[in-house]
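Hi Y.,

Following your request, here is the sequence exactly as I used it, all 218 residues.
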Amino acid sequence: MVTVLNKSKSLFNTYLSETRDEQVQKDSFRFRRNMERMGSIIAYEISKQMKFSVREVVTPFGIAEEHIISNPPVIISVLRAGLPVHQGVLNFFDYASGGFISMHRDHDKEGKFHVSLEYISCPSINDREVILCDAMIASGASMSLAYKSLLSKGSPKHVHLIALIASKEGLDNLRKKLPSKGVSVWLGALDDELTAKSYIVPGLGDAGDLAFGAKDTE
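Below is the corresponding structure, written out as tokens. Let me know if you'd prefer a different format.
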């Protein structure tokens, strides 16, 4: 299942438009905050798909029956660009566990890059719902490797993959490597073009650099 949020008109679109705007991007605090807000909205949409149980709540005047999530998810983010999205999801899932995946991208002389896993740290994911967060799905290589590495840590009940923007090519590549069941993809927007150097067009640029500053390449 693939859900693209900007196909429907909501406040989500305002935050997405600001993350794309090169003038607003000059304010890194606002850029991170908008990523966080979009993560929270996606978390709310994901919550509608989860299993709930009835809980009796004692009020000053009686007892109310309310539905609550039966088992909080495990939230895992791809460092570093996924961190603001992770925080946005965590803002809505108060009792969630957390984990992190670090990857290394090597660029060759042609400008193409190769992704390798550095480490993964997470709690038990056996029979749990997992939300895997990243900012972008460009070629799909990072997200597919993150998903594969996640399965080395256990057998989740369901995995929700989150990205704020994806390219159509990246989504197609990702789908070829995902199972037909047990995985959902949640996107803020789906853009048409991916350049030879794996930049999404129109995209928004380098989410990690915009959120946290340019990396030292020395």
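The mean pLDDT is 92.

Thanks again,
Q.
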